[in-house]
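hiii, so i know i said id send this last week but things got crazy w the move. better late than never?? heres the sequnce for the chain we talked about at the cafe, plus the structure i predicted for it. fair warning i was half asleep when i ran it
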Amino acid sequence: MSRPSQRNPWFWVPSLYFSQGIPYVVVMLVSVIMYKRLGVSNTEIALYTSWLYLPWVIKPLWSPLVDTIRTKRFWTITMQLLVGAGLAGVALTIPGPEFLRYTLAFFWLLAFSSATHDIAADGFYMLGLSTHDQAWFVGIRSTFYRIAMITGQGLLIILAGYLESSTGLDPIELRVGAREAAPSMTQPDAALLDSILQRDDAVQLRLVADPPEVLIASQPVSRAIVDSVIARVREHNTSQGFYRADVAVSGTAEPDRPSLWSRFVSGPLERTLRRLLAEDATQDTRSDRAGNVGVARIFLTNDLGSADEVVVNLGREAGDKSIQIVEGSRLTFRPTNTRASAFVVFQLDPKLDRATDATFVGRSGNIPFAWSITFYVLAGFFVLAFLYHKIVLPFPVQDVAAVK
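okay and structure toks below
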């Protein structure tokens, strides 16, 4: 039976470019959100995910291989299968203890497979369509590529968030307000920090925020006071085990030695800038003032029991962005610390000069499970895309390998 050299472009152009956009948005944007929800530090996220863009930068280096070895059709459908395998690998390794190391490896596979898919799909588009159809469908392919971007940044995040919320405790809500007449805090209550909560087995396990409404004086205060409050809360949360240690790829505990760059370039430059800026700071008395802070505590009403841990992520739900969480945005409750309280510090913008409010919500759930299911769904989609395009993609006469 002869192979069809042409098919209706509506059967494969939209789906092909939708499949081209999904891996890019997953690697470049969704991975950042996922790692943040899993508790990876901002420094590590910026370092490792920034390198994932490299395959798209250097793809001209191996594009001649795609043009000369096998056909564009072969590379297109094969890369879709590899993308599905990479997504399944990410989903499989997320629940593991060394998820950062292994998920990064699979994200690299995704990045190289996606960059190769871009090369092959764009070449196949030129071979599979006539000159007239190429001009006609150029807007169609761009539209479906953008739809893929919206799907990755919107629907996938919504799916992961829904799965996360549906697997955890009921969310808690904290209302934070700035008022001129509110009292200023100098230190969190030491007795409250060190208190041990009594448990009642008859009470259902849930999260509690105390107080549910935090009022903060809108006037700026001394920076030393603010730093002292934040340091005291950080010390308490760390000592009680509410902060998970930053995930490290190397696993070494030796201190980093200063590099040649830091010793001879960045270090001297930093000292020079500090010296120059210090002169301006002495003339500006506002440099010693900072936005006022307020503290709330979060605790569980009962012991965890069979649950391993409960991770609580707090974020702004609505209200003024002049109110920020500066400490305690992610808290981990374990059987070892369920009788203690975790504390959250809210800070106002020092330029805030009016009464305002913001609402923060703390959600708990099985975050690895939620993201693992999300990536399994993506992997299943690409398996279906591989099978679909294996059937519907035409066999252009010009699509032949230069090397046989």
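btw The mean pLDDT is 84. thought thatd interest u
miss u guys!!
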